[in-house]
Amino acid sequence: MAGLSPLRRLSRVVAGLAAAGLLMLPLGPSASAHTPHDDIADTTLSPNFLEDGIAFSISRGILLKSVDAGLSWTRIVRGLDNTSDLVAIHVSPSEPETLFLASNGDGIYKSTDQGASWARVNAGL
Fold first, then answer.
1. Do the beta carbons of residue 87 and residue 102 sit within 8 Å?
2. Which of 6, 64, 66, 122 places its Cα 20 to 30 Å from the Cα of 49?
3. Contact, 120 vs 108, CB < 8 A?
4. Could you count the other beta carbons within 10 Å of the beta carbon of residue 25?
5. Whole-number Å distance between alpha carbons of 46 and 91
């Protein structure tokens, strides 16, 4: 995938979200009820996405990670003891291994290993 253009890599992320059922793309007249089924609260790409293909998405209040430019997604739970929905994720542009995750009620979580594990960092907020 290293030779793909940025637009092509991004289109793979969108296609991966759609294939996983996490992104509802309108294919015709929209239905009046239950659209979309799976809301995407936030999606972010690694600052090195063109090289590493890492993307994060929050759907239905859970965190998902892709390491193949969106072709497949894995649920991330290690260290996440949240009881309310996750709503936002941010990758540090200067330290791509550092991420911050916000929830509706449980505070902020931080990862220093590209999302493999998480810890609450609410002290001092």
1. yes
2. 122
3. yes
4. 9
5. 7
Q: Which of 88, 90, 73, 100 is nearest to 15 (CA)?
A: 73
Q: What is the dihedral of CA 113, 118, 123, 125, to 10 degrees?
A: 90
Q: What is the pTM of this model?
A: 0.70
Q: Which of 98, 91, 94, 88 is nearest to 119 (CA)?
A: 98
Query: What is the full per-residue pLDDT of the chain (125 aa) written as tens digits?
Result: 556 666 666 666 666 665 555 555 444 444 444 455 668 889 999 999 999 999 999 998 889 999 999 999 999 988 899 888 999 999 998 999 999 999 998 999 999 999 999 999 988 77
